[in-house]
Structure formats: C-alpha cells, structure tokens
Amino acid sequence: MEVREPNARYLAKPAFKQTEVGVIPEDWISPSIKEIAANRPNAIVGGPFGSDLVSKDYVASGVPVIRGQNMAQHYVSGDFVFVSKQKAKFLQANTARAKDIVFTQRGTLGQVSIVPGKPFNEYVVSQSQMKLTLNSEMADPEYVYQYFVSSSGQRQILDSAIQTGVPHTNLGILRSYRIPAPPTVVEQQAIAEALSDADALIESLEQLLAKKRQIKQGAMQELLTGQKRLPGFEQKTGYKQTDLGSVPEDWDVIPIGQAAQCLIGLTYSPNDVRSFGTLVLRSSNVQNGCLAFDDNVYVEMELPARVITQEDDILICVRNGSRQLIGKCALIDETAAGSAFGAFMAVLRSKSSRFLFQQFQSHILKRQISDVMGATINQITNKDMAAFKVIWPVLESEQTAIVTVLSDLDAELAALETKLAKARQLKQGMMQELLTGQIRLV
Fold first, then answer.
1. Which helix (H) or strand (E) holds 227?
2. What pLDDT does 93 receive?
3. How far apart are CA 247 and CA 283, in angstroms?
4. Angle between helices 363-373 and 353-360 (to 10 degrees)
5. pLDDT score recorded for residue 14
6. Mean pLDDT lowest for which of 10-24, 114-128, 187-201?
7. Cβ contacts of 337 within 8 Å, gap of 6 or more
8. pLDDT at position 1
9. Directed axis angle between helix 185-223 and helix 396-434, to 10°?
C-alpha cells in the first residue's frame, strides 16, 4: 500500500491580535458555537429525555442511534442499535443528519464526530450526546471538527466540564464554546482539507499496521507450532498430540525452566533513587515489545550480579497493578545491557532467548499466563515461569531460521510504528499552525 504525506502551499504570516481563543490573525474571528449554528429549530440539541428512549425501543433495523461507542472515529460509525421509523419520527427533534457534528455530553468527554452522508440518511442522538447543525455560510463542519479534536479544542471541552458527580457538560456550555476561524468558509475548507489529508495518511498507516500485525500473528501460529516448516526443515515425520496441541514428532514440548534461567529483580527504596547511577528497568521501560527510555529511574547502591542485565536477556513484567502489563516483555539490547531490573520484573537468560522471546508473543504462552493469574492474582512467580511450557524445535538451526523470519516481520512493524508516530506528530504540528493562523494556506 502506497502512502503519501499531505502537501500544502503556504503564505506569509499576517499581523495578529489577542482574542478569547488566543492570538489569531487580525482578519480572523472568534465566534461562539451559538453564533455559527444554523438559524433553525433544534440546531443545537441534546438527546431525548431518559424515558423517551430506552433499551426496549431498540429493534433489529430502522434508524440508527448514535451512542458513545459510535464516536471513536472521524465520522460516526461502528455497531449501531436501531429504533423504528415511527419512533424516530417521535424523536425528530433529536435527529442528526449529514454534516452535523456530535459531541459527547457525559461519559468520555472530548469525543467529537461528524455525521456521514451514508449509509443512513438520519440518526437519533442518544441521551449522552449533543448535536450541532452549522450555518453553512459561516462555518465548515470539517473545520469545526478539526478544531475540537485539536489540543486547544479538547482543552476547552474538558476545562468547561461540570465536575460534580460524573463529569459532564450541557447545551449551554456547548453554545458558549468559541473557535478561532478564518473570515471565509473557503479558507476554512482549505484548512480542513489539508488536515483531512493528514488524517488519511494516519488512517492508511494504521490500516497497514493492523494488516502487518495480523500477518505476524499468522506466521507465529504456523511457525512456532510446526504447522509450517521452513525450507531445509521440511516435515519427514508425522504429528503427535501434546497438552499444547498437535506438534511435529521431531519437536519437543518443554518447560521454560529447562531452556532458561529465571532471575528475580532488585528491591530498592526511595532513598536509593538518584538522578544518576545505574538504570533500573521497570514495566514502563517495556512498550509494544520494545525497550523505551522515557521514564527512567536510577539508583546509587551496590548491586548483586543477578540483577544486572546482559544482551539478549528477556525482560518480563511479572507483577503490576495493571494486569494487562503482566507478561509483557522486551529483549535487552546493547544499549540496555549492564542495567539493573526492578522487583516487579524478571529476566530470562537462555542461549535460545530470541526464539523464546517470540514464544512470549504467541497465544500459547499468553494463555498460560492468564490461566495462572486467574481472576485475582496479579503476578507470575518464579515457579510459575519455570513451569510454563513451550513448543521446542530440537535443532538450534531451525530455531534460528524461525527467529529470522519473525524478526524481519518485527522490523517491518517497528518501521511502520515509527512512520505512524511521525505522521501523528505532523498532524499535531499542522493543527497548531493552521488552526491559529500562524500559517495561511493559498
């Protein structure tokens, strides 16, 4: 899939003025939502009263209802519930149509989406959402959307929220929001188009990344179970049944303790923490299967040799308040070798560590970790780790060949993740410049 970065031409910076929404060009305006809303009934409206729309009103098909889960993307989408056309007619004051903008009123504040023109002609707004219809001669929906998903727009939404009880907002607050806006809809549309190009780049990269992740999962499922053998290691025997499923007869199923040494981490106190010294690797240093160094802790103390990492060690989170982090791991590279690792972490040391690392990305080990923790336990003990079973090719050369294929896929994923992060940074920079008039489009 080819992805191209958005392209735009720029004019020189104009003169500026101070307004309620910050510094903007002298010829820009800062209208309130009330001022740019359409001059018609229910241009700004919330959902029905609670008793007017309840779960028993939902039917298999008809007019879709916009709820919070339908507002995760640029456009309203996802799995909808429906009401009958008769019910929708009764709730016509709460109807949203193409180019309307929907805001979350309670729940996940900051959600903003545009109503698409298809596949449905109209939608009913739920009790937790608010709908805005704009005056098309004053404001472009895509521009207004881009402002409210920017950091400034999100800050305005969150700062104005009512914090008593469950944080929420209301129609009065929505009407009072202000936006920085070019004086013409044409310029608003040009800005929205440039930012939408950036969104399209991000979306294409996200889709490509999701596809590559599926390919990696499929490759792991086949290669780590022996269901597919690489050239030079073709199947010469049949399969045997094990407690991990069907595996080649010339492969083994072994406990991790037979293939690796499991080392426990360092216990230290706040008094040992310094702004220098030995880096202590923690769960925050493991992100997306890789090492990260944006939240570092250092200690100045005498350290036992067992807590010092070596290159190709597997660093694993074995205890954490967040269960989702348990079992997450990363390979120690040359930049992290010689660091220490904390008490909530463990290290597996093995001559087959790279093959074992790939096993930790598979469903086989993830399922065993989940089974050990059950519903209440938030840790993996050394004994647990040693007892986990893995499917094991007998030949080291076959392990190496499998690791090479899967590592190449990991490298592709890492490159795409880097490109996606840069595209998101590009979009943020464009929003900061274009939505404040710091740069004007031709």
1. none
2. 95
3. 33
4. 70
5. 63
6. 10-24
7. 309, 310, 311, 313
8. 45
9. 170
Angle 263-304-296 from CA coordinates, rounded to 5°: 80
Place of tokens 């939240």: 295
Largest Cα span, the chain:
79
Mode of pairing for the β-strands spanning 290-291 and 286-287: antiparallel
Helices 151-159 and 141-149, axial angle in degrees (round to 10): 70
Query: Is the link from the previous residue into 41 a cis peptide, with omega within 30 of 0?
Result: no
- Sequence-separated (6 or more) residues with CB below 8 Å from residue 2: none
**Exposure class string for 195-226: b at 16+ Cβ within 10 A, else e:** bbbbbebbebbeebbeebeeebeebbeebbbb
Say if CB 303 and CB 344 are below 8 A apart. no
d(CA 138, CA 185): 6
Q: How confident is the model at residue 412 (pLDDT cuts 50, 70, 90)?
A: very high
Query: Strand runs (DSSP E) across 161-305, as ranges?
Result: 239-242, 245-248, 251-255, 261-264, 273-274, 278-281, 286-287, 290-291, 297-299
Domains of the chain: 1-8+185-233+395-442 (1.10.287.1120), 31-179 (3.90.220.20), 236-394 (3.90.220.20)
Angle at 64 (CA atoms; ends 63, 66), nearest 5 degrees: 140
Residues 18-30 pLDDT 10s: 999 999 999 999 9
Cα–Cα distance between 393 and 193 in angstroms, integer? 53
Gyration radius of the chain over CA positions: 28
Residue in the structure block whose two tokens are 């950091």: 151
C-alpha 276 chain-centroid distance = 32
How much is the pLDDT for 9?
53
pTM of the predicted protein model = 0.82
The C-alpha atoms of residue 300 and residue 385 are separated, in whole angstroms, by: 30
368 and 307 in contact (C-beta within 8 Å)?
no
Q: Which residues contact 114 (CB under 8 A, 6 or more apart)?
A: 74, 75, 76, 99, 100, 101, 102, 141, 142, 145
pLDDT, mean of residues 168-196 = 96
- Does the pLDDT value for residue 3 go beyond 60? no
Report the C-alpha gap between 247 and 356 in whole angstroms.
Answer: 17
User: Tokens 């093959």 belong to which residue?
Assistant: 355
